[in-house]
Amino acid sequence: MTITLITGANKGIGFETAKQLIEAGHTVYVGARDVERGEQAAAALGARFVQLDVTDDASVSDALATIDTVEGRLDVLVHNAGILADGVVDGPGALRAFDTNAVGIVRVTEAALPLLRKSSNPTVVTVSSSMGSFWAVTNPERPESGMPLALYAASKSAATMLTVQYAKSQPGIKFNAIEPGTAATDMTAAYGIGRSPVESARTVVRLATLGADGPTGTFQDEFGHLGW
């Protein structure tokens, strides 16, 4: 049985990714800040719940300790928790964006590494964004070039870089970042854009189910490798 943890999995792409991985035979831990919403999501999915706030060290530590006690290892980690940070661009907003979208990746990864090292096929997937790609945001033919989301874009660029750097420092573990495609979620509701989260989740699942000889240190979307 493959043991999987997904952060921010009580709704949107995280929820659909959990659903598809459960259908593929994974034991999935739904990580969510809100206990009630997380427990409801886990019950609906047939998953397990751990309270996990990626901006809180104690919460992250407790969540991974729970998985360690019950499972003794972690095979797949999906960094899905994130915020759009489309409000006022100022110091507090920047700190919040980076704390959630980038520093949260460090917190969870560092806590998970001892468990991932016990897996025979450890895999980490970062749900990043092409908004964090210099190539995309400077390309007038790409929609990203017309979307002024400074804090989101910068923090997602950091998320992708962290993924690549972890791939270099942890050669026994696959680390890959994914642009899942714009999905219609709470995050994008104000813009009225996006496809079904079911479709975007498929791109995450593809990287979460790589074989032992799969790639590492990449940034991809559903069509292949992305420039960034």
What does this structure look like?
The chain is an alpha/beta fold. It has one domain (3-225): NAD(P)-binding Rossmann-like Domain (Rossmann fold, 3-Layer(aba) Sandwich). It has helices at residues 12-23, 35-45, 57-71, 91-116, 134-137, 150-169, 197-208, and strands at 3-7, 27-32, 48-51, 76-79, 123-127, 174-178, 218-221, 224-225. The protein has an eight-stranded mixed sheet with strand order 3-2-1-4-5-6-7-8, sandwiched between helices.
How would you concisely characterize the structure shown here?
This protein has 228 residues and is α/β, with parallel strands linked by helices. It has helices at 12-23, 35-45, 57-71, 91-116, 134-137, 150-169, 197-208, and strands at 3-7, 27-32, 48-51, 76-79, 123-127, 174-178, 218-221, 224-225.
Strand order of the largest sheet: 3-2-1-4-5-6-7-8
Number of helices: 7
- CATH class term: Alpha Beta
Net shape: globular
Q: Outline the biggest β-sheet.
A: 8 strands, mixed
So, the CATH homologous superfamily?
NAD(P)-binding Rossmann-like Domain
Q: Approximately how much beta-strand content do the residues carry?
A: 15-25%
Query: Roughly what percent helix?
Result: 40-55%
Number of strands: 8
Cα-based radius of gyration, to the nearest Å = 16 Å
Distance between the termini: 35 Å
Please tell me the CATH architecture by its name: 3-Layer(aba) Sandwich
What labels describe this entry?
228 residues; 8 strands; alpha/beta; globular; 7 helices
Secondary-structure blueprint of this entry?
Elements: E1 3-7, H1 12-23, E2 27-32, H2 35-45, E3 48-51, H3 57-71, E4 76-79, H4 91-116, E5 123-127, H5 134-137, H6 150-169, E6 174-178, H7 197-208, E7 218-221, E8 224-225
Parallel strand pairs: 1-2, 1-4, 2-3, 4-5, 5-6, 6-7
Antiparallel strand pairs: 7-8
